[in-house]
Amino acid sequence: MTAASEVAGRAAVVCGVGAALPPHIVTNADLTARLDTTDEWIRSRTGITQRHVAGVDLSTTDLAVHAAAQALADGEPVTVEAVVVATTTPDRCCPATAPAVATRLGLTGVPAHDLAAGCTGFLYALATAAGLIAADTAQAVLVVGADRLATLPDPEDRTTVPLFGDGAGAVVLRRGGADEAGALGPVVLGSDGTGADLIRAPRPGALYMDGAEVFRHAVDRMSTASRQAASAAGWNVTDIDRLIPHQANSRITSFVARQLGIPDDRRLGNVGDVGNTGAASLPLLLARSAADGRLEPGHRTLLTAFGAGLTWGATTLTWPGLSPTRRPEGAGHDR
Ligand code: UT7
């Protein structure tokens, strides 16, 4: 039988956070110049005013490395023993992104793999990393969410082009006690393949999305998963200081907060500045909010996401004493 103290020592504790965005910004005005749309429509239907878009010189691997390097540099000094990269837009079908990310960070030899779960990928990766720690495979795991979703829409499709942007975010998880600040609570995850056709991209440039139906599922699934994760952590929803929802549309996150009874000033967001960045969305928002003070040590924080698959999830943590030194603007070379 496992002693209680040993179980407590197998929790996964967030001890570093970082993010990276491509330097090139595409504004709503840039889009109205080439698509049959308006700034007013995009803002009022989605909350988005601009998105960062990577050029051909900035790959998903590059973005992942920049975000991870910041998480490692700004966090507690730990020895990373595994790498998980959540992405729907790897640079190639084979090999996976994570081994290349690990090697570029000087971590050659550690277990490293990719994970695809749409915009919920980061939460799936957190659960996977917590499992690697619980299984004694690694004492510390680098978890990256990196996507170049701007590559997925048909460039002529006004219904999807305005929604998506590129970016990456990362956290470092280390083994620790369940009562420590930063310890992940239970991670609630789910999927429903009957909705596979609602968001699908058989290849880059050919994204199809049933926006209204996805909207409805997103509100419903994120609200339900959030309640389940809060309850599994022993929290009342009224205990939640900060709601960190996946950033696809500010109307969706507003509905989720309302359904949960969480006051709007506790709902954090950055979709206006970055659009929907897929698996990067949650860690990007964590890094930005920690840097600008909207997320403070001690805040009881609930993360939730929804994405293609369909997939969804939620988890909790009390935010630790972490604040990245830089805002996540400008991935590396040409900010
Ligand atoms: O990460 C998870 C995956 N994604 C999401 O969670 C996204 C979920 N869905 C949404 O965010 C929203 O459904 C959208 C933003 C995609 C669309 O908003 P909506 O309020 O559901 O609009 P709609 O699709 O019902 O379209 C309303 C109208 C249509 O015109 P008609 O048929 O009423 O004449 C569209 O053709 O708006 C039109 N429209 C546009 N008009 C100007 C669609 N895109 C545009 C556009 N500019 N860019």
From TrEMBL:
Determine the domain of life of the protein's source.
Answer: Bacteria
- What chemistry does it catalyse, as a reaction equation? malonyl-[ACP] + acetyl-CoA + H(+) = 3-oxobutanoyl-[ACP] + CO2 + CoA
Any GO molecular function: beta-ketoacyl-acyl-carrier-protein synthase III activity
Which residue intervals define the domain Beta-ketoacyl-[acyl-carrier-protein] synthase III N-terminal in the entry?
114-193
Q: Which region ranges are annotated with the description ACP-binding?
A: 247-251
Q: Name one Pfam family in it.
A: ACP_syn_III
InterPro entries xref list: ACP_syn_III_C, ACP_syn_III_N, FabH, Thiolase-like
> Keywords on this record?
Acyltransferase, Cytoplasm, Fatty acid biosynthesis, Fatty acid metabolism, Lipid biosynthesis, Lipid metabolism, Multifunctional enzyme, Transferase
Q: Which NCBIfam families does this one have? A: fabH (TIGR00747), PRK09352.1 (NF006829)
Member of which family? Belongs to the thiolase-like superfamily. FabH family.
Free-text note regarding domains: The last Arg residue of the ACP-binding site is essential for the weak association between ACP/AcpP and FabH.
What protein name is recorded for this chain? Beta-ketoacyl-[acyl-carrier-protein] synthase III
